[in-house]
Amino acid sequence: xxxxxxxxxxxxxxxxxxxxxxxxxxxxxxxxxxxxxxxxxxxxxxxxxxxxxxxxxxxxxxxxxxxxxxxxxxxxxxxxxxxxxxxxxxxxxxxxxxxxxxxxxxxxxxxxxxxxxxxxxxxxxxxxxxxxxxxxxxxxxxxxxxxxxxxxxxxxxxxxxxxxxxxxxxxxxxxxxxxxxxxxxxxxxxxxxxxxxxxxxxxxxxxxxxxxxxxxxxxxxxxxxxxxxxxxxxxxxxxxxxxxxxxxxxxxxxxxxxxxxxxxxxxxxxxxxxxxxxxxxxxxxxxxxxxxxxxxxxxxxxxxxxxxxxxxxxxxxxxxxxxxxxxxxxxxxxxxxxxxxxxxxxxxxxxxxxxxxxxxxxxxxxxxxxxxxxx
Length: 375
Fold this sequence. Notes:
Blueprint: H1 3-15, H2 18-25, E1 35-38, E2 43-45, E3 59-62, H3 65-70, E4 74-75, H4 86-103, H5 110-117, H6 121-132, H7 136-154, H8 159-168, H9 174-178, H10 181-185, H11 189-193, E5 200-208, E6 211-217, E7 222-228, H12 231-241, E8 246-249, H13 252-266, H14 286-296, E9 304-305, H15 306-312, H16 319-328, E10 340-341, H17 354-374
Helix pairs in contact: 4-5, 4-6, 4-7, 5-6, 7-8, 14-16, 15-16
């Protein structure tokens, strides 16, 4: 075989390798997953290297820096593949900033955080939000809210100890905490600390094609829609969530609410485009609530991937966190986590079972088709 034929063969092999597309696009997310060497220069690079694109016939791929160096290539002085990538360096800085926030009694300012991790304020703000899905201030608020929950669970119900818990969590004044305590805890601090004591939650359990369904409502709105095979297990789940609340079996009026939920499950076409429109008592972290709001904006009969949801909330790198927020959702159908699928359109895990997810999606798709035919 002559040299031209050999070069053509090597070029074809490179062009047919999916890693070449990452090199051509200089994708930073491919860094550290593989490296490539260039025969004509004797160096090896990371996929995102900004150097002039090499001829395909001169390229070889390597699984590690050691593999490339063993083959006789030296690291590129431009992209420095033997050193941490920019993304890895930024991740270290964001983690460091998170630790600073978590261990500070007061919320550090943006300028102070950026200076301590060695990045400009504007660049730091963008990096932090991209990595965590929250602004530094939003992350600090979420940490403070979690601390106050933890402190309230540790202390007793006396006013003095609850006040101490509020200050220990980083709030500078009682008034600032109490102004938002209902949204944060769903009840007063004393009631939260007491496990929801004196809080009344009405509930009822019905049946639908998906099995048993439990609907519960607090003074603020529907606080749980649970699906399962065992009605007793659903009741125990509700009891665990509100361990010291007063659970009251629903009367005939309340059972109309259950019927509304069941009706939407069985015939989603009645609410197509509107969703299950009920007052909700939604409790979760700042990030979870952003995800859940994005889920409620997915129209019935349509789906979105976890990656798309992450992008919609401005946190494209937080796909796993989005999946975690979906799994934490306790309001089936009302917050339609069943409409979130894998990037390839396949069904992934669902809190109440993948088969239920499939049925819900099929019902909605069928209702959408009927609406289009009738329209």
